[in-house]
Specification:
- By secondary structure, the protein is mainly alpha-helical.
- Helix content is 69%, strand content 3%.
- The protein has one domain.
- Helix 4 runs antiparallel to helix 7, helix 4 packs parallel to helix 8 and helix 7 packs antiparallel against helix 8.
- The longest helix has 35 residues.
- It is globular.
Amino acid sequence: MKDSSIRTTMLWLIRDTFRQSLAQGIFYVLLAISVLSIAVCLSISVSGRDTLWQGDESPDFVSRKEDISKEHERLKSAGVIVADGKLTLAFGAVDVPLARDTREGVHFIELILAGGVADTLGLMLTLIWTAGFLPSFLEGRNICVLLAKPAPRWVLILGKYLGVLSFVFAQSMLFVFGTWAAIGLRTGFWDPTYLLCVPLLLLHFSIFFGFSVLLAVCTGNTVVCVFGSLLFWCIAWSMNFGRHALAMSTDLVSEAMPSSYLTTLVDFGYWILPKPADLSMLLFNSLGAGSHFGKLLDLHALEAHGFSMILSVLSSLAFAILMLFVSARRFQTTDY
């Protein structure tokens, strides 16, 4: 098959994925979530000091004006800076006193959107809602039409995979850029690191959707794809977190330890499975979330134990590629 024919088939499959998302209503559901989030961001306003930084000092937590109202004037006359800013939601209907400067208050909102809405809730919902794309695509009455055309089966699998990634990319662009622009317009703060959510979320999704593709090819069942993908994510996360917890407690382990067998077994499971906790840690550190939230995993401490984020990401990508290869081989031998 010529390269031009392969590209044409790929583009058709990508377009068909968007058509399928419209037909099933998934496009509109995700669009509604993005529009609602953007609307909430457009209702935000902040007042107070832009920054509390003074020279080399960085007061992370200081008392709010309301907490020390009697002392406010005395402290002010003594040259002490008091955080008396305020963040409002729903066009002033909800007031949130800020214990930091306004820049950090806006940063906190962005972290909630990136880590809570997009990386956690968004990733899970997207895995669930897109899990049915492949099973319905592989139904006998649908796939037979495509198999009658001179296109290699691996092209169909890869094209559909890229189609779903394109759909998720478009939705994530709308959510991230829309909320970023809305917050920037309302507050005047434009944090470019927030835009890193798009490639990092797509990377996270692409790895686990590879496993969903394998389930679809093997079973053709949407329910299996949905629950199988979520269960696999939980298993991979537990293995990922457990391996790092074990590495960080080497002193404790060495006292009670029957041994290096446990460490070897956990390391084996860690390297062959994708690493969602590492991917979330990458997003956490890229956005500078450590100034607001406690670290579930400390990157610097892990690096002291030989951890490499580059190797972690590459091994996770290798897993996704392996899943696609196995899926294509399985699809090649399936009769319809």
